[in-house]
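Quick one before lunch.
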Amino acid sequence: MSSNCLFCQIVNKKASGEFLYEDNDFVVFKDIHPAAPVHLLLVPKKHIRSINDLKKEDEAIISGLFMIAADMAKKTGVNESGYKLLFNVEKGGGQVIFHLHLHLIGGWPRIDGWKK
Ligand code: 5GP
Ligand code: ZN
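Model of the zinc ion complex:
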C-alpha cells in the first residue's frame, strides 16, 4: 500500500468506490469518467506502479487480470459485441494513476447489430 496512491486508498476502502468484483488479490470498479457505456478498471490490490515495474513474481497478477477481464466482459454483456483492454504506461502512454490497472472498455451501440 502506498499511502498517497488513490487506487491503494480505493482498494483499501479509504476512498469511496463500489466494487463490481473483489477477491483476495483484485478489485473491479467503474471508471469515474467512462469513455464508453462500459468502462471498468481492473486493479490488483498490490501496489505496482506500471507495466514497467512488473517482477517475475507478478506473473499471476497479469494472468489474473486477463481472466477477470473475460469474466467481467461476460457479466457486463459485452463479450459478444466486443471490447478493448488497455494498459496506459507512464505519462507519455496516458497513465495518470500510477497504480497498475487494466481498462475494460466497450458497450458501444451499433445500429446494424453485433451479429457475428
Ligand atoms: P490511466 O489514465 O491512469 O490509465 O487511467 C486512470 C483512470 O482512472 C482514468 O480513466 C480516470 O477516469 C479514472 N479515475 C481517476 N480517479 C478516479 C476515481 O477517484 N474513481 C474512479 N472510479 N476512477 C477514477
Ligand atoms: Zn497504489
